[in-house]
Each structure stands twice: as structure tokens, then as C-alpha cells.
């Protein structure tokens, strides 16, 4: 940390986190960041709802309810809901051609809504108030899980299909290098991009990546966005370890809400999905004991470990021995990347400490990993992860991501989900020994 860097106090961070959520509130939904992402993003809003739940539960529920205004008839919750026009983002509604109202993308994102809903319910001291609010979102959330387990698992294998890197939330992770390498771009959208005009291009995906992923969009448009056709026929078909874990955890959380609400039919269906998904995890385990994403076209596991490899802890699906393997892996990374957890293996050729999802740390992923660590009895490691996450925020602000080598802020500024995770996790309990936090930097 340079002598010129001003470390914020925990209270200053908390005050700024509140201000960021209010500033990014568009009247019922929250944009991730005002300059780069001017719409409502799916998993961003779920994490933001967790942040709102720490001080305004009614607003937390509203965030989820507004997200589900974009839900498709088949149950899919799109990755973006375009509630209002904005010309400083690409690809906007016209590029997707979904003909949905309100306008949306044609792809989804990690299903965090059930987990957020459970957290909001548990934060509400009055059970009747919680159940009344839950009743407004339970059916849409269940419909989205049904979509994942049927449309995106049409053969009932227990492994759900992802057809676009942006669906995973880990947009240009090395996990997708292999699947994307077979795609010959049919479009060139490099001149249409806006993201690399407002953020350092070295921190963003390449033009080749954008051309390939927009080619996938053109393939889906040719299929008229028919769910089953897209799941079976798009050039990229992958079981993303991240989504597989997040969905399984969300199934467990939705099961708890179903049981609380007396929804026995839905509860039994969730138990069946949980059993099927849990058994399928064996197909995602590599010879070295780590878990990887699976290319469903080639049958090949991803060649390197990423931050998603730690999410089986979050999903409660790892055995004690597998948890020990993951802890050893985390310790091995620590020397190269003291500000854990990098989004990909720092020892692999594909690693880039500053480029989007190829190295940077994301606080929402840290939050999920820490949750898993604590569950498996690694409380000290979970606390260390919270502390380094807090140190990055206190030193560099509420950035989109952080450099794992030194905690430097990357990407967009005043980021909603980073603010939400400070309120819900990284700032709790708030640290008062700023000298101790400074030592972490």
C-alpha cells in the first residue's frame, strides 16, 4: 500500500455502501454500476437484495419482485431486464431480438434468487410478515428452478447446460477457452462495444471473445430462442461448475422455504432434483481431486482450476477429504495471490491478474466460498478471506473486482454488489483496527 493511499474506516465504508445502493437504485431495481451496466442484472440483483435486507427488507423483496417481471413463460429468468432505454451499453435489446416485454436478453445467469429469499426471510423477526412477502416470489423462483432442471437438463442427467459464457457470470473465464475455440465468428461487433471505452481495455474481454459470443446469440436467434432447441443445438454446451454448485445450493434453500411455507409438492420435487444433481457431481471431478466444468460437446473437463472449483463447499456437496484437497489448493495459491481468491489458477498459462474473470477477485464469489469454508469447519480461513476482502474495499473502494496480488481495484466503480456484500458480509463484524487492515495491504 502506498503512503498516499487513504484507508477508509469501517464506518465510512458502511456509509458509502448505503449511498451507492441508493445512488444506483432506479426505483425498484438496482443497476450494478451507473457507467458500465445501466440495467437490471439477474444475479447482481439477488446479491443486492441481500445487502438491502440488512437495513430495508421491503426494498430487498422489491428487488427480487422487479427481477421476476422479466421472467419468461417457460420459467427462465433472463440475465438482463432492460426496464428503461440506455444507449451506452452493448449488446442492448435490439441485438438480442427476443421480442419479450419488458425487453430482456435470451440467456440467464446463476440462480441466486432462492438463496437471497431465504436470507431475507431469516432476517425478518416476524414470521407472518416474512411468509407474506415470500408468497409473492415463491412461485416465480420455483418456476425458474423447474426450467433449469427440465429445459436445461432435457435428458435428466443431473447436469445442467449452459449455452453462453455470459450465463455463467464468469464471462471470459479460462473454462470457456476450449468450447469457444471451435466457434468461427460470423459477426464482427468490435466497433459496437462500449465497455472498453469506459474501462481500461486491458481489464476487459478481447474483441475475438465478443465476436464469438455474439455469434452464439445469432445461432439462438435463428432458433427463435426456443428453450429446448437452444439447449440441444447451440455450438457451446457446457456444464458450468459454478452454476451447478449455485443451483444445488439454491435448491436446498428453496427446499427450506417450501417446507416453511407448507408447499409439500414443491418440496418433494426439490428433493428429487437435489438427489439427482448430487449424484451427477462425480462427473465433474478430475483426477487430481478438484472439480471442473465439463464441455458437454467434447466430454472434456476444463484444463485448469478456477474460483468455481471451491464452490462445491458452498453447495455442501464436497466430502471431507475433497474439502481438505481444496484447502490445500487454496494454501498453495496464497503465496502468488495474497488477496484471495483469484478467479483462475495463478500458476496456469491462461491466468491474467487484471483481465476480467481470468484472475481478478470478485467479492461475491469470496462470499460464497467463505460460506462453504465455514460450513466445513475452516472458520479461520473463512475469516481471513473476509478480512482481505474488507481490506481491498477499505483501501480501493467499491470496485467491480480486485487484483489478487495487491488488492488494487479493477473495472467499474461504485459497484452495487460489492457495496451489498460489505453490508452483508465483509464489513460484519466491522473491523476497528485500521492498522491491522493496513498490514493486510
What would you note in describing this structure?
It is a single chain. The protein has 441 residues and is mostly helical. It has one domain: Alpha/alpha barrel (Glycosyltransferase), CATH 1.50.10. The protein is 48% helix and 3% strand. It is built from 18 helices and 6 strands. It has a two-stranded antiparallel sheet with strand order 1-2. It has a two-stranded antiparallel sheet with strand order 3-4. Helix 2 runs parallel beside helix 5, helix 3 (57-67) runs antiparallel to helix 5 (113-123) and helix 3 runs parallel beside helix 6 (127-150). The radius of gyration is 20 Å and the shape is globular.
Proportion of residues in β-strands: under 5%
Give the end-to-end Cα distance, rounded to a whole number of Å: 6 Å
- Major sheet: arrangement of strands: 1-2
Helix/strand class: mainly alpha
CATH topology: Glycosyltransferase
- Radius of gyration over C-alpha positions, nearest whole angstrom: 20 Å
| Helical run tally | 18
Q: What best-fitting shape do the alpha-carbon axes yield?
A: globular
CATH class: Mainly Alpha
User: What's the number of domains?
Assistant: 1
User: What string, H for helix and E for strand, traces the elements in order?
Assistant: HEHHEHHHHHHHEHHEHHHHEEHH
- Main sheet overview: 2 strands, antiparallel
Please count the beta strands (DSSP E, at least 2 residues each).
6
Gist?
The protein is mainly α. Helix content is 48%, strand content 3%.
Please outline the helices and strands:
Layout lengths: L9 H14 L16 E2 H11 L4 H11 L12 E2 L11 H4 L16 H11 L3 H24 L26 H5 L13 H4 L8 H16 L4 H7 L4 E2 L1 H21 L2 H17 L13 E2 L15 H4 L5 H15 L28 H13 L3 H18 L4 E2 L6 E2 L5 H11 L7 H7 L1
Antiparallel strand pairs: 1-2, 3-4, 5-6
Helix pairs in contact: 1-17, 2-3, 2-5, 2-17, 3-5, 3-6, 5-6, 5-11, 6-11, 11-12, 15-16, 16-17
